[in-house]
């Protein structure tokens, strides 16, 4: 396990064939703010977050997850982590150095065990952000990302060993065994979770709202826009967070959430939750049932970007 700790989830970068349609959805419907762009590339911020952007959209022939980006405290920590990853046989995409993206900073990229591109960075200039007001239904920040993997035990072990993630909770089926691992790098219940699926892919990206009222107003705006609502509204037991899931124009699942549980590091003991119990997946009992259709959409399309670094 790495003694150099990541600090937080910075952004999730997506490639899509129809950039303009995706951009319109993420800004006009989902409530993100376009802060910078180039030909076929857009950087989208959450109004309440100091991150320069929480989503990057890139036009490409094929849909894929371009990368996940995490913060680290200092350039020295980035150097140490890069050296340790290389020494452990992890394939680096680039050596640590200055980043050309908005806000600059210092970082590097590498492939995880499933072939996803991961970026780690420090010293990124903070964006001028603002307090989200009552009844304002726009995301405060990027909450977490959930990823599908055929062997979640292997993927979990890799992230714990090399990047210092800690297990918070497990979702288990009496018939099928472990279905999901929730992992943290700070006090938030999870920044990443791994869900067992038939292939490597994006499960969902989650965005934090100010509170329950704002979360419901944002969910209502998405419903009224005609966006496909996949699951919710409800409240999970693992993480104790509210949820509503929607599909973006390219079939990626997005979540509005709020009131994520905060973990006391010295006293937390991981739970094992029985996924067959209705109150585990939805404490409120207000969401539509989790069924094969919802599960199929959550599996998403196989990621075509495994072990292929994005061009930028």
TrEMBL record:
<dbReference type="InterPro" id="IPR029068">
    <property type="entry name" value="Glyas_Bleomycin-R_OHBP_Dase"/>
</dbReference>
<dbReference type="Pfam" id="PF00903">
    <property type="entry name" value="Glyoxalase"/>
</dbReference>
<feature type="domain" description="VOC">
    <location>
        <begin position="8"/>
        <end position="123"/>
    </location>
</feature>
<dbReference type="InterPro" id="IPR004360">
    <property type="entry name" value="Glyas_Fos-R_dOase_dom"/>
</dbReference>
<dbReference type="InterPro" id="IPR050383">
    <property type="entry name" value="GlyoxalaseI/FosfomycinResist"/>
</dbReference>
<protein>
    <submittedName>
        <fullName>VOC family protein</fullName>
    </submittedName>
</protein>
<feature type="domain" description="VOC">
    <location>
        <begin position="141"/>
        <end position="259"/>
    </location>
</feature>
<dbReference type="InterPro" id="IPR037523">
    <property type="entry name" value="VOC_core"/>
</dbReference>
């Amino acid at each position: 396990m790495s003694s150099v700790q990541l600090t937080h989830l910075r952004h999730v970068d997506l490639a899509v064939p129809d950039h303009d349609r995706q951009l319109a959805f993420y800004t006009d419907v989902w409530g993100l703010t376009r802060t910078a762009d180039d030909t076929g590339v857009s950087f989208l911020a959450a109004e309440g977050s100091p991150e320069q952007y929480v989503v990057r959209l890139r036009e490409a022939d094929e849909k894929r997850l371009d990368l996940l980006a995490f913060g680290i405290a200092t350039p020295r920590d980035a150097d140490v982590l890069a050296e340790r990853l290389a020494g452990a046989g992890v394939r680096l995409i680039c050596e640590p150095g200055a980043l050309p993206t908005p806000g600059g900073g210092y970082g590097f990229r590498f492939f995880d065990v499933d072939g996803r591109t991961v970026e780690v960075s420090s010293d990124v200039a903070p964006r001028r952000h603002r307090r989200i007001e009552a009844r304002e239904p726009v995301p405060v920040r990027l909450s977490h990302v959930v990823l599908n993997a055929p062997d979640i035990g292997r993927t979990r072990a890799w992230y714990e060993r090399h990047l210092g993630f800690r297990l918070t909770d497990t979702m288990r089926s009496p018939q099928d065994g472990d279905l999901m691992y929730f992992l943290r790098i700070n006090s938030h219940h999870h920044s990443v979770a791994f869900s067992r699926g038939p292939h490597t892919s994006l499960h969902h990206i989650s965005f934090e709202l100010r509170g329950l009222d704002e979360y419901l107003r944002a969910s209502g705006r998405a419903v009224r826009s005609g966006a496909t609502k996949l699951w919710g509204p409800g409240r999970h037991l693992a993480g104790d967070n509210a949820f509503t899931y929607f599909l973006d124009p390219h079939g990626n699942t997005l979540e509005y959430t709020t009131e994520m549980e905060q973990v006391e590091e010295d006293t937390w003991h991981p739970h094992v939750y029985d996924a067959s119990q209705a109150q585990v997946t939805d404490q409120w009992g207000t969401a539509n049932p989790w069924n094969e259709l919802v599960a199929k959409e959550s599996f998403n399309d196989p990621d075509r970007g495994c072990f292929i670094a994005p061009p930028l």
